[in-house]
Design goal:
14-stranded mixed beta sheet; two-stranded antiparallel ribbon; 17 helices; 16 strands; glycoprotein
Length: 564
């Protein structure tokens, strides 16, 4: 009876006092020694936290998920999987694979869409110093003197960007020059004596025309008082080279002479807006990334017949980006409309700039040599000597040729056509320094010379004949990508120098941690099983001993009789 009256009050107290409830639950289960041991920690926590059973259960649930042996083993397996994945497909691989897509908003696309202003164009002009002596026959050859450099910034703009369904990207590339007065010391009002491009160029173009056409041309030149050498300011020679012969010829034969301004830079940059289609995406892979598929809608070199010229612009690059994962055996094909041909670059050496390991590729010194047993796209009739390539297809069939500056390569003696040249490999070669994993050019120098090809002019007059079969250097240009912005250099440094060892370190740490968690919990599981067996064995032994005790039996019987 007393027990029955006490129990309700205890129940009431426990329901009103969380602390008491926590204690009672502890006491009611105190008869089971195993449960008491297992719940000892929870009961203690419950009392210390004011009996907050809900908080205790939440904490216990989190502990079960994160910290119990099964949870730790799961985390160990996850860490091992992440580590193996990191070794097989590294963060660098992921970044390079993502770069293939050229997604707007990400750095590779944004840096390409708005290229940094880092390309300087330096022009060197040739001034004729003995034009009167040459015309009078006192000197056998024209002597030239180099003037320059004249420095501009070449600006490149990309617009009308369109992503195509066949994993290509079409865009419009426009190049133009910005004068840099602070880097120039040449007086643009200074005068030069230069070959009259209008007269000699048109005469060379008409060298195999019939007699009446040649004589009519001579009469037109004489009527306008045009000379074979003219005096021009540097500004005129570069941007505003005009002659009355050009105006008359353009009116008489606009198809033959489509322009009346022969200024060197005016001609090069008058039509420097080109539609390009390049290969991007995983379909093409790293080896074809950003290579040209079409130039102005055609995979063929502009001006060349596909049946006559095997060279294709397909697979070349405009030099802003190169393929990824470059090797020393790769050949880089560079396309520059000014030169009007594909330029192959071959591996030369390993270099380091801004603490980044790079590859240097040199432009082949045999690039302007004649090709035997194959179709030579860059020769004319009569054949050009080694070291000179035909460029007329990009200049309305005007007799222009390209070569290395000062004819420093090929089989041409330096004084064969003109005197005064000083070929120097260190000053006149071309190369590009590329980060091989990302295909990013760190530094590049492209140097090319433009020359006037004069055919046999013996059908005009003795004065013209003195120029027969000459190749007269007009100017040469250096396109120099001098540097990259700091943010691009730092990004590449982090990507190719810091990220690979960092990812290896993280992957190694994860795999070690994963194996540690699994091994530790397997060991503790075995240890716990051994302890539990020993404990149960000890308890069973004590119970049996107590049951055999006669005093304990007597007290138990007395208690049962009293209750009844």
């Amino acid at each position: 009876m007393s027990a029955e009256t006490i129990l309700p009050s205890e129940s009431s107290d426990s329901s009103s006092n969380p602390s008491t409830k926590c204690e009672d639950s502890d006491s009611t289960e105190s008869g089971d020694s195993t449960n008491t041991l297992l719940d000892k920690t929870v009961s203690k926590d419950c009392v210390e936290n004011g009996g907050d059973v809900k908080h205790t259960r939440e904490w216990k649930g989190k502990k079960i998920v994160c910290c119990n042996p099964v949870g730790q083993c799961v985390w160990g397996v996850v860490f091992i999987i992440l580590s193996v994945t990191g070794f097989v497909f590294t963060p660098l691989d992921f970044m390079l694979w993502e770069k293939l897509q050229m997604r707007p908003g990400l750095p590779p696309y944004e840096w390409w869409a708005d290229p940094p202003d880092e390309v300087k164009m330096r022009a060197y002009l040739f001034n004729v110093t003995n034009h009167e002596r040459f015309l009078e026959g006192l000197d056998d050859k024209i002597n030239v003197d180099e003037i320059g450099p004249i420095v501009y910034l070449e600006k490149l703009l990309h617009s009308n960007i369109k992503f195509n369904e066949n994993s290509t990207m079409t865009y419009t590339a426009k190049r133009f020059l910005i004068f840099l007065p602070e880097e120039n010391t040449v007086d643009f009002n200074a005068t030069l004596i230069v070959p009259n491009l209008a007269v000699l160029g048109l005469a060379s173009y008409l060298h195999n025309a019939n007699y009446l056409v040649r004589q009519a041309f001579r009469f037109m030149v004489s009527t306008h008082g045009s000379k074979l050498f003219v005096k021009k300011t540097i500004q005129e020679y570069l941007w505003d080279f005009r002659d009355p012969v050009l105006d008359t010829s353009k009116n008489l034969a606009p198809g033959l002479v489509p322009v009346n301004n022969m200024g060197i830079m005016a001609r090069i940059y008058a039509d420097f807006t080109d539609e390009m289609t390049v290969m991007i995406g995983s379909q093409w892979g790293h080896e074809h990334f950003f290579q040209i598929e079409k130039f102005r809608g055609n995979p063929q070199l502009p001006g060349y017949d596909a049946k006559e010229c095997p060279d294709r612009i397909f697979g070349s690059t405009e030099g802003v980006m190169y393929q990824q994962h470059l090797t020393k055996s790769d050949v880089l094909l560079y396309w520059r409309k000014t030169v009007c041909k594909l330029m192959p670059l071959y591996f030369d050496s390993e270099v380091t700039l801004a603490s980044v390991p790079l590859y240097r590729y040199n432009l082949s010194e045999s690039v302007h040599e004649r090709v035997s047993n194959e179709t030579d796209c860059y020769d004319t009739h009569p054949s050009l000597p080694d070291g000179i390539s035909d460029a007329s297809k990009c200049y309305f069939d005007f007799p222009m040729t390209s070569s290395y500056p000062h004819f420093y390569t090929g089989g041409i003696p330096k004084d064969h056509f003109v005197t005064g040249l000083k070929p120097d490999r260190m000053k006149h070669n071309s190369y590009v320094i590329v980060e091989p994993l990302t295909g990013t050019p760190f530094h590049s120098v492209a140097r090319m010379q433009s020359n006037l090809r004069v055919h046999d002019l013996s059908g005009f007059s003795d004065e013209y004949d003195r120029f027969s079969n000459l190749i007269i250097p007009l100017f040469w240009c250096e396109y120099n990508q001098e540097d990259l912005p700091s943010k691009i250099k730092w990004t590449i440094y982090f990507t190719v120098v810091i990220l690979p060892p960092l990812s290896i370190g993280l992957s190694s740490a994860l795999i070690i941690l994963g194996f540690y968690l699994i091994t530790k919990n397997m060991f503790y599981r075995e240890l716990s099983n051994d302890k539990l067996k020993n404990f149960l064995h000890f308890k069973s032994k004590n119970v049996n001993t107590l049951a055999k005790n006669t005093i304990f039996t007597y007290e138990k019987e007395k208690f049962l009789k009293g209750v009844s």
